[in-house]
Design brief:
Structural class: mainly alpha
Distance between the termini: 43 Å
Strand order of the largest sheet: 1-2
Shape: globular
CATH topology: de novo design (two linked rop proteins)
Number of helices: 5
Number of strands: 2
Number of domains: 1
Strand content: under 5%
CATH architecture: Up-down Bundle
Helix content: over 70%
Length: 134
């Protein structure tokens, strides 16, 4: 009986270690079946930054709106099962332009830079992360 208990504890421990090893940045849920989580996170971070930028000039607002529009185009195709690298490049370029040219709160800049890293990883893996689709 004690031998069975020890084996059970060992299996549970290995499963816990495996789950921890596979965990990604807590803000991104790579296990989402349709892969919406990372894209929704980018959109939410961009929306949050836009809300914090009440002092924006017209050009800064246009850059944010353009990045949101690009994200929407890519996400619509993605949700229909189509990975469009060109659209993703447009999203990355627009988001990079917002980070480079807009006056952002440090917290918002850090989040958007993290989002850029994740989008670039997504592009490099052509929409796949390990065995799971983003």
């Amino acid at each position: 009986m004690q031998h069975l208990l020890m084996k059970s504890l060992a299996v549970v421990g290995l499963l816990a270690i495996g789950a921890t090893a596979n965990a990604q940045d807590g803000r991104y849920g790579y296990g989402d079946v349709r892969g919406r989580e990372p894209l929704d996170r980018v959109r939410a971070d961009l929306d949050r930054a836009a809300r914090d930028m009440y002092y924006l000039s017209g050009g800064e607002r246009r850059r944010v709106n353009h990045a949101r529009d690009e994200m929407g185009e890519f996400q619509r195709k993605w949700e229909r099962g189509r990975f469009d690298k060109g659209e993703l490049d447009d999203v990355i370029g627009s988001l990079q332009h917002v980070v480079d040219k807009n006056r952002l709160q440090p917290r918002d800049r850090d989040r958007l830079l993290s989002d850029l890293d994740h989008l670039r990883e997504m592009r490099a893996r052509r929409g796949y992360f390990g065995r799971d689709r983003y």
